[in-house]
User: Which sequence fits this backbone?
């Protein structure tokens, strides 16, 4: 008989995050499919106060609480998670791919001699057996797989399930102690924005706007116009609230000493060695659409591109529409229309 | 300060420009013509190697090892180029380099190889690697290796490391394009790197010659590691057929393109 643990943490805001709520929905559906009990395990400063807000029907709620578990630190997260996995006696551990748990759970799986599958993009229960779907080689091929090994940690990518509805139900939470907690050798100092010019990465945006290295190349007049490119892109992001992505070649220019768009960092990079964001729409500009970049668009549903080259990668079945045009001219007018 | 003993774990992956196709082999899924594909050092692991060399150059008494698992002959080819980038001592493991092999088994092999490095001071250890491979793309192996080595200070998606004596100040990628900043009192620690901040070093043939003197014996000593899919039972493995019917729009004035794009943005 399987026993499913939803493993989650409270965000620094004191609330349960969207990725966790999505995983909660997934865990509830999988437990139902397996005919298994669902147990919720929460980590946070006052985790027990948030357990009821998850909105899932669980057989038990467990919590590791305390100020030291508010910090996103591997040692304390791994210790707390291990304690929850052991206390729950779970055979399947489900979590959302938050940065905290993505970092902590591989080590926890090692500690409890389990196995872990990350970046999971789908799950199915058939005949009492859980199988999952994930991608290999950076979104180039998709596999379905299962594992008889228990406990099996399954970490869901964001956006696979709709979030479990929030609830204000009071639940009884069992406090779980963490053996030999601390002293901790790592201290979290805080967070900072990846760019000094504010947030440009917006995971929940409808539109992903990708800038390629063409923005910094010599234009028709024989000169490059990087400040103008930066102004156009910044103006578009402010007006559209789109999320900013980049090709590798553009962000590499900063480390290679070339002219750069000041708010562009490696965090913006999309593709083989960058992010694979999820957005309903994507607009690529001045980017050739080569395969190592386009693998990062796997989860971008509608795709359009503006490029001077009618034979660029986007035109070869990778975008829905390719506008053969000067992106400077087009985006200037797009900004005018957006006001 | 005694310097850092930096061990970088880095495997090989197909060159990103190659087309990849899955096939079913005797030991589970594999890549078609895998033995023929040009290989590169896993990109994020490569960044971690450059960061390791940079740190070692600025912390007297430091040393860098590269622990790499792959088919021995392919490793030798790969080292011809990597050896020209930075100075390191190779620890080679002879085994399959594919993305479908079990991370748990790989972690065990890597950890055992690290435990076997003579003169490695585990109290000075900084374990480096990529935050995920371009093959399995799971982001789990480094953490498992670290756990096996007893490292409780772990960082994932690192872009920056500053040191002040033994103290480590680390920036990790977190949600929404932000960084988490942490301070760790001293080694040992594991840092799984993202892109870092350094450019790819230019080729230095002299350095390559120097490195190869120790790389060739290391390759000759490479222990054979049997690897498979472990406890994972694969069902279908397929390349997505996702070719779009692209509408290529030529000779449309920028004003009209802009109108079309804005209308599309506002749909739905």
Assistant:
């Amino acid at each position: 008989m399987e026993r499913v643990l939803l493993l989650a943490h409270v965000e620094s805001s004191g609330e349960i995050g969207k990725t966790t709520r999505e995983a909660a929905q997934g865990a509830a559906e999988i437990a139902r499919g397996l005919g298994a009990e669902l147990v919720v395990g929460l980590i946070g400063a006052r985790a027990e106060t948030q357990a009821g807000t998850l909105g899932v029907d669980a057989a038990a709620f467990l919590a590791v609480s305390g100020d030291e578990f508010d910090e996103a630190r591997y040692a304390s997260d791994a210790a707390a998670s291990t304690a929850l996995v052991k206390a729950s006696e779970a055979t399947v551990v489900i979590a959302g791919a938050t940065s905290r748990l993505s970092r902590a759970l591989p080590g926890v799986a090692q500690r409890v001699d389990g196995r872990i599958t990350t970046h999971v993009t789908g799950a199915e229960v058939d005949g009492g057996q859980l199988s999952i779907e994930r991608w290999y080689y950076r979104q180039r091929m998709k596999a379905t797989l299962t594992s008889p090994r228990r406990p099996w940690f399954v970490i869901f990518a964001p956006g696979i399930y709709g979030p479990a509805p929030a609830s204000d139900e009071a639940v009884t939470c069992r406090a779980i102690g963490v053996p030999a907690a601390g002293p901790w050798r790592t201290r979290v100092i805080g967070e900072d924005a990846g760019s000094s010019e504010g947030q440009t990465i917006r995971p929940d945006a409808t539109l992903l706007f990708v800038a390629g290295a063409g923005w910094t190349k010599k234009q028709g007049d024989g000169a490059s116009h990087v400040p103008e490119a930066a102004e156009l892109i910044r103006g578009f992001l402010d007006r559209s609230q789109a999320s900013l992505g980049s090709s590798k070649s553009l962000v590499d220019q900063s480390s290679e000493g070339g002219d750069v768009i000041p708010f562009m960092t490696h965090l913006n990079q999309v593709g083989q060695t960058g992010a694979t964001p999820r957005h309903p729409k994507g607009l690529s500009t001045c980017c050739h659409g080569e395969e190592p970049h386009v693998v990062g668009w796997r989860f971008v549903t509608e795709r359009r591109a503006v490029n001077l080259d009618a034979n660029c990668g986007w035109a070869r079945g990778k975008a829905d529409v390719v506008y053969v045009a000067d992106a400077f001219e087009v985006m200037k007018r797009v900004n005018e229309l957006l006001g | 300060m005694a310097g850092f003993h930096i061990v970088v774990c880095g495997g090989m992956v197909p060159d990103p420009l190659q087309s990849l196709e899955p096939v079913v082999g005797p030991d589970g899924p594999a890549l078609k013509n895998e033995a023929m594909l040009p290989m590169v050092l896993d990109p994020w692991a490569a960044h971690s190697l450059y960061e390791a060399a940079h740190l070692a150059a600025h912390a007297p008494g430091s040393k860098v090892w590269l622990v790499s698992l792959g088919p021995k002959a392919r490793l030798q080819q790969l080292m011809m180029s990597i050896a020209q980038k930075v100075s390191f001592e190779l620890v080679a493991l002879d085994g399959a380099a594919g993305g479908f092999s079990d991370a748990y088994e790989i972690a065990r092999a890597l950890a055992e190889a690290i435990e076997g490095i003579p003169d490695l001071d585990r109290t000075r250890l900084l374990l480096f690697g990529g935050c995920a491979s371009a093959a399995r793309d799971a982001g789990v192996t480094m953490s498992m290796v670290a756990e096996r080595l007893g490292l409780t200070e772990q960082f994932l998606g690192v872009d920056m490391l500053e040191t002040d004596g033994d103290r480590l100040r680390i920036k990790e990628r977190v949600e929404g394009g932000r960084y988490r900043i942490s301070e760790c009192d001293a080694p040992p620690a594991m840092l799984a790197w993202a892109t870092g901040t350094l450019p790819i070093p230019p080729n230095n043939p002299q350095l390559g010659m120097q490195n190869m003197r120790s790389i060739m014996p290391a390759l000759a000593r490479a222990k054979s590691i049997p690897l498979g899919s472990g406890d994972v039972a694969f069902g279908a493995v397929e390349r997505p057929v996702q070719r779009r019917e692209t509408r290529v729009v030529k000779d449309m004035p920028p004003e009209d393109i802009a109108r079309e794009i804005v209308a599309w943005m506002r749909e739905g």
User: Anything to note?
Assistant: DSSP finds six helices and 15 strands in chain B.
